[in-house]
Design a protein that fits this description.
The complex is a heterodimer of chains A (about 280) and B (about 160). Chain A is α+β, with helices and mostly antiparallel strands and about 280 residues long. Chain A has 10 helices and 11 strands. Classes of the chains: A alpha+beta (about 280), B mainly alpha (about 160).
Chain lengths: ~280, ~160
Amino acid sequence: MKFKALTAIAALVVAPGLALAQADDDNLVINGEIEAVTKTAAPAHMEDTGVDTIMSGWHFRSDETQALQMDDFDNPGMIFVDLGIEQWNKVEGEAGNSCASCHEGPESMEGVRAVYPKWNEDAGEVRTLAHQINACRTENMEAEPYKYTGGQMANMEALISSKSRGMPVNVAIDGPVAEVWERGKELYYTRTGQLELSCANCHEDNYGNMIRADHLSQGQINGFPTYRLKNAKLNTSHARFKGCVRDTRAETFTPGGPEFIALELYVASRGNGLSVEGPSVRN
Amino acid sequence: MKITLTTLAAALVATPLIAGEVAPASVTFGEYGEIEQSLTGQPGDPENGGLVMKNKSIGNCIACHQVSALSDQPFHGEIGPSLDGAGDRWEEADLRGIVANAKQMFPGTIMPAYYKTEGFTRPGNAYTGKAPEGDLDPLLTAQQIEDVVAFLVAQKEE
């Protein structure tokens, strides 16, 4: 009897916290016109994970943070898209080219973000969008590559992503990328560091729960690059991966290196069906 | 010069094993993952145990667990069970085993092992993201473990 009463009291006390902790049911419409898919059925390859609905990290943030992403005039990430446009048009390198020399306006990038990382047949490798940007710079422009997680790279990724907003993430996981995808999956479930935490421990087993003051999301990357209020800048997915692995008290992997390429492919594929949101706004 | 200072600081922070303490590698777990023997032979200090548990840079237990007795610190997590009444549900030896290495009792649990120094995948130098310099220290000292255990034993609801 005493136990029941205590349980009932506990339930009353805990309930508001739990309600707060669930992913909400708001709808993301950007600029009153781009209707984003932020919740949808998990892709077939996630059948054994116990996750049946995939959700954008947007659902795990406060109404105030969510609102910032719903209008480009409020979205601080769009400032970096403008910087990206300047970079797009700027001639750099020995070949005398800018992005625009070959690709005309950035509108030509529509749909590109949604399918990266992807196989590059000529190079015989899986390329992230950042690698492809740098391949363009070094091979076609004969310019210096951007630093992999640097500001200029984030700006360019934000510009290119913005042209695919609202389109479903659709990365291939079979054929020539299958081996890299499997490596990424293995890494996702590897418990690293002195804290022995895998991506899955937090983002598959505990999304929706609070870890101290942080609300755990599914760790989806459809919103990258992401403007974080925490550090007031655009963040790339590999910089975020690095931070997460570091926080397990582990020796991290190198942004742009083979491990994080594989991880990006796998994590991106867990978001197949969600809309591209980059540049998104998060805590 | 900077390196020398850092190394010196590290040496000061690193806790040499105190006589009478059981080293992490020498801990004997029972059949169910419990640890009967005190790690220090000294009684735990429940008050300090509470400080260890709520301090973000020490135990940070409340990152994952709700504990009413520590409610002066906000933002208790929801990852693990509430620790209210832990002293009713568990024996001291069980609690010692869970804090030292919960995976001995609950294989696959997300909970980190607080008194373990070997057997990690890509261990780092604390939160620097870099490779460790030399041997790892356990996340908590033997006495901190005993202090946390003393705090938990005292959590009674009945």
